[in-house]
């Protein structure tokens, strides 16, 4: 499991200007000015939850998880999750047709885990285009929860 202290140590070195440049670099230019005006430094960004993102104008659950997870990856120069969302969806016949929607939204397993941990997985899945409540339930129960159990061991 990841060491949260590593993130904290790295985030402390990020100024609001660096956060703004980071947002520009990941294609979130529409948010960089607000983050800069609100003086959001790396330590703030690391601890931000869905409510904080919404107050900063990040209304899309997709953008919220992308910013949060890409920031953590940037801090530790990580590539991404060891779990392939594409493979997980392909292994589930009732969910395989959502593969393109997740790919278009640039959502991966780690981003879904972040959304679940922060209580907005259902909102994220709706934003991605998973309109059936039953399918959102299947994704959480059949795909996300088993990964959480493995990570907790």
Radius of gyration: 16 Å
How many beta-strand segments? 0
Strand content: under 5%
The unreliable regions are none
Shape verdict: globular
Helical percentage: 55-70%
N- to C-terminal separation? 9 Å
The overall average pLDDT, rounded, is: 88
Number of helices: 11
Structural class: mainly alpha
Query: Could you give the order of the helices and strands?
Result: HHHHHHHHHHH
Biggest sheet character: none
Tell me briefly what this model is.
With 153 residues, the chain is mostly helical.
How would you characterize the overall build of this protein?
- There is one protein chain.
- By secondary structure, the chain is an all-alpha fold.
- The protein has helices spanning 4-11, 16-25, 29-37, 42-47, 50-55, 61-76, 85-90, 99-105, 109-117, 121-128, 133-152.
- The termini are close together.
Write the layout of secondary structure elements.
Layout: H1 4-11, H2 16-25, H3 29-37, H4 42-47, H5 50-55, H6 61-76, H7 85-90, H8 99-105, H9 109-117, H10 121-128, H11 133-152
